[in-house]
Design goal:
The protein has 14 helices and no strands. The chain has a domain at 3-124 and 225-335. The protein is mainly alpha-helical.
Length: 341
């Protein structure tokens, strides 16, 4: 069985399905693309930088988690980063397609246990950085509200308070995972689901040593390689900031620049960070749909409306972001056949 070909076919099928599941007609879609015009190039192109930052973060995890003789070059990690995210975007259940593929491919460069722990650690770091992005965005909103730039009332205060509590709970759970490992606990938790207890017990018995080794490697990154841990976390957080520039480009395209000039564009960029943060929070809360179909669009509309901007702008941003995702999914799927061993 050639798993590479199976992932490749599933990815292509997902792209075709997504092309025919837009909430707008192809005529309306083309009109939005034409309106984006040459701005579509930086909107799509900035993700080459974002994936590069993600790859550097993953490399930092690998260097802190594996033996020195298990060297993996940047361009291979860059390729696996793009392809992994392409499969994640294209698959349901919160994006579970990319991680198995990354483990399968990375196992060609290092031991399977190190490949597994490195992929799990990077996935944890990716999610961990999300929570820090959402957490700090709350205080950014409060600062702008205090300056009179954004609205604030009891409802907004309650929502922001709930986000802070949600993030603090996540920080506690992640601290436990980084301290004691995650895999064995996750398999045991799966055993509490209906009809899966037998599978969980058999899997833990058959792979007990390997699973405990993976957990030990996960814990070792935070305890013994803190330089690599915080470097990876910082890079992942930076990638969210860079990601906000695509929203900035679309706001500038609509003439939203907070008065223009350096100060106006800087303020617009801060608004872009908030839009990106709250949209990703909304989309990840309901992450069981492929590409979060319908959820991301609603998130953009709500986030942009909260900034006091028009619904039309929210729809435009969501559609162009969907087009960008499909382009990069296609690129990621095609990369599966580049440099295949």
């Amino acid at each position: 069985m050639n798993w590479n070909n199976i992932f490749f076919v599933l990815g292509l099928a997902a792209v075709v399905v997504m092309l025919f599941t837009f909430d707008v007609s192809f005529i309306e879609l083309w009109e939005h693309i034409c309106r984006a015009g040459y701005w579509l190039f930086p909107i799509v192109g900035v993700w080459a930088i974002i994936y590069g930052v993600n790859a550097l973060s993953w490399m930092s995890v690998i260097r802190g988690n594996t033996d020195k003789d298990e060297h993996v070059g940047f361009w291979r990690i860059y390729k696996l980063t793009i392809t992994g995210y392409a499969l994640n975007y294209a698959t349901p259940v919160g994006g579970l397609g990319g991680e198995p593929y990354r483990i399968m491919e990375l196992s060609k460069d290092m031991s399977k246990q190190h490949a597994t722990s490195s992929v799990i650690l990077y996935a944890m770091m990716h999610v961990f950085a999300h929570f820090w992005f959402w957490f700090t965005s709350v205080f950014l909103y409060l600062a702008l509200a205090a300056a009179g730039d954004l609205p604030f009332d009891i409802t907004v205060g309650i929502v922001l308070g709930l986000i802070i509590v949600f993030c603090l709970i996540a920080f506690y759970l992640f601290s436990r995972g980084y301290r004691y490992g995650l895999v064995v606990r996750l398999i045991r938790w799966i055993g509490h689901l209906p009809r899966l207890k037998g599978w969980s017990d058999r899997f833990l018995t058959a792979h007990a040593e390997a699973l405990h080794n993976v957990d030990a490697q996960i814990a070792a990154l935070h305890q013994q390689s803190r330089r690599h841990f915080y470097a990876a976390l910082g890079l992942e957080y930076l990638s969210r900031i860079v990601q906000s520039t695509e929203v900035l480009f679309m706001l500038l395209l609509f003439g939203v620049d907070c008065g223009g000039g350096i100060d106006g564009i800087a303020l617009t960029f801060l608004h872009s960070i908030l839009i990106t943060a709250f949209t990703s929070l909304f989309a990840n809360l309901i992450g069981f749909l492929p590409m979060q179909l319908g959820v991301q669009e609603g998130g953009f509309v709500l986030s942009i409306a909260a900034m006091g901007l028009s619904n039309a702008l929210g729809i435009f941003v969501s559609i162009i972001c969907r087009v960008r995702e499909i382009i990069w999914i296609f690129i990621g799927i095609m990369l599966m056949k580049v440099g295949k061993r």
